[in-house]
Amino acid sequence: MVDENHEEMSKIYEDSFKDVKEGDIVKGTVIGITAKDLVIDIGYKSEGVISFEEFNDPKSIKIGDVLDVLIEAKENDEGMVVLSKRKAERMQVWEKIIAERKEGDMVQGRVTKKVKGGLTVDIGVEAFLPASQVFLKGFGNLNQLLGQVLNFVIVKINKPRKNIVVSRKDAIVRERDAAKGKMMEELKPGQLIPGVVKNITDFGAFINVAPGVDGLLHITDMSWGRISHPSELVAVGDKIEVMLLSLDKTTGKLSLGLKQKTPNPWEQVVTKYPVGSRVKGKVVNLVPYGAFVELEKGIEGLVHISEFSWTKRIGHPSEVLAIGDMIEAVVLNIDKDSQKIALGIKQTEMNPWTEVAGKYPVGTPVKGKVRSFIDYGAFIELEEGIDGLLHNTDISWTRKINHPSEVLKKGQKIDAVVLSVDADNRKLALGMKQLVADPWPEFVAKFQPGTVTEGAITKITNFGLFIELAPDLEGLAHISELPTETTGKLEEMYKVGDKANVKVLRVDDAERRIALSLKA
Questions:
Q1: Helix (H) or strand (E) holding 13
Q2: pLDDT band at 20; cut points 50, 70, 90
Q3: In whole angstroms, what is the distance from residue 88 CA to residue 53 CA?
Q4: Residue 69, number of CB atoms within 10 A of its CB
Q5: What is the mean pLDDT of the chain?
Q6: Residue 216: alpha-carbon gap to chain centroid
Q7: Model confidence pLDDT, tens digit, residues 117-169
């Protein structure tokens, strides 16, 4: 009877367990504790065993505890069911992860060990982190991540193989973007923010103000004064505080300023440096057209080369100034909006032109030296810095002069007379012909139309010959008034200096011209 009951109970157990297979998770009750195992009743004809090694604190387990266990094998060599508490937990975690997580989700995990091609990460189950997905750029030292708890992005889930691939690189990008987005929401123009100089260019410096967040500090926003290159103020790696000038939340671009942390010195420039006041400053730059002078930090003025001296002719500012020189100047003009100050050095001295009118009144005979030529006249130096203009029309009463070099040479000393003085515009007009009486009336009387005389050829042109009738008196024999046998080029028929008999045809008193003829 007992045997029949035993067989019947065994059959009931087998029938109830026949649908359970290896790899399934079932509930089991602790019915016994040995030196190294727990004996578990899972409702099968044979009990199961679980090693103490699968428990973090096996002493906390007691008879009657109900556990979730995984069936590894229905029977071992001893006829016991092989169970695993740890694998059951992992299986449950896996199922939970599959149910709750998907590719692209962020998870947290601990880097456990280094394996071929990357690292393993415990995210509840073991996941694989490829070496290419660890760092944002390149390949770093994988060992430094061991034991760290970090965020990862699930990039691949292989359900059949129960395999998960994660990426630390993608997580870093997300964290950076999230931090950037949060910061962009919190930032307000005018706010002071700390940063580190990341890169320097010719037009400014890029400042890192948060992970993945860089702003541009333009060279024009570095200093109220003039700087030639950003490296004069900052270096890569410098920690600086900057002001946020503007931000574009759409593009993520930040515009930063350094000079805006201090008051704009130009706000008080008109009051501090009124026009006409004398100032002192340091020469900080020389250019072909003048010198820049620093009056104070952030305030510079320009001394134009024309404002260096009343009398000296200066080709380049370096002839009289050097960078670092301390000078005195007078404020000539201020353009606050454009942040420009015009300075003058010569204004600190007496203007010699104020004495010119008294020293050289109109009609005064003077002596001077030919300094330079222009097309319509010559500049005559009367004394250092005082030049007068001798116009071509004031060189001779009767001779037509196209260029002053026809009668004058540079360095030549001449006599002249003052015709006019304009001290305000620093102009003085001179004349040579005014030193003698006008001979034209005498010439007109002597060379009436019909008069035949002899003259010397002074110039040969394609339209005729110029012939000197008397000193400084020339007439023109037009080509139509030359002998008919003149068929070739005039240069082949006549020579300068040749004598010729001519007849006076007309005298133009207004234009002071005399028309001649060489025809018989």
A1: helix 2-17
A2: low
A3: 14
A4: 26
A5: 85
A6: 11
A7: 899 998 878 889 998 888 888 777 888 889 999 999 998 888 777 788 999 98
Question: What tokens were used for 207?
Answer: 């400042």
Beta carbons within 10 angstroms of residue 385's beta carbon:
14
Contact at 8 Å (CB) between 240 and 197? yes
* Burial class of residue 290 (count of CB atoms within 10 Å of its CB; 0-12, 13-18, 19+): buried
The answer to whether 169 touches 155, Cβ cutoff 8 Å, is no
Domains in the chain (CATH in brackets) are 2-90 (2.40.50.140), 101-174 (2.40.50.140), 187-261 (2.40.50.140), 265-348 (2.40.50.140), 352-435 (2.40.50.140), 440-517 (2.40.50.140)
Alpha helices in 234-333 (DSSP H): 269-272
pLDDT at 274 (0 to 100): 93
**C-alpha to C-alpha distance for 463 and 473, rounded to whole angstroms:** 19
Can you tell me which residue has the tokens 């590719």? Answer: 103
- Yes or no: say if 77 and 46 are a contact pair by the CB < 8 Å rule: no
Structure tokens at 204: 């400014």
Tokens representing 459 are 């110039």
Instruction: Give the C-alpha separation, 451 to 447, whole Å.
Output: 6
Per-residue model confidence as pLDDT tens digits over 214-247: 889 999 899 887 788 999 889 999 999 999 998 8
CA angle 504, 507, 511 (to 5 degrees): 140
**How far apart, in Å, are the Cα atoms of 461 and each of 457, 464, 504, 511?**
11, 5, 19, 20
Give the number of other Cβ atoms within 10 Å of residue 130's Cβ.
16
Enter the pTM of the model.
Answer: 0.46
Of residues 433, 426, 427, 429, the one with CA closest to residue 418: 429
Report yes or no: 30 and 61 within 8 Å, Cβ to Cβ.
Answer: yes
Residue 212 DSSP class: T
3 state SS of 504? strand
User: 63-72, 288-297, 495-504: which has the minimum mean pLDDT?
Assistant: 63-72
What percentage of the chain exceeds 70 in pLDDT? 94
Average pLDDT value for residue range 256-264: 89
Helix (H, G, I), strand (E, B) or coil at 406: helix
Average of per-residue pLDDT across 74-96: 76
Q: Which long-range contacts (CB under 8 A, 24 or more apart) does 243-248 make?
A: 243/190, 243/191, 243/192, 243/193, 244/187, 244/188, 244/189, 244/190, 244/191, 244/192, 244/193, 244/215, 245/189, 245/221, 246/189, 247/184, 247/187, 247/189
Residue 3 CA neighbour count, 13 Å, CB half: 0
Largest CA distance in the chain: 180
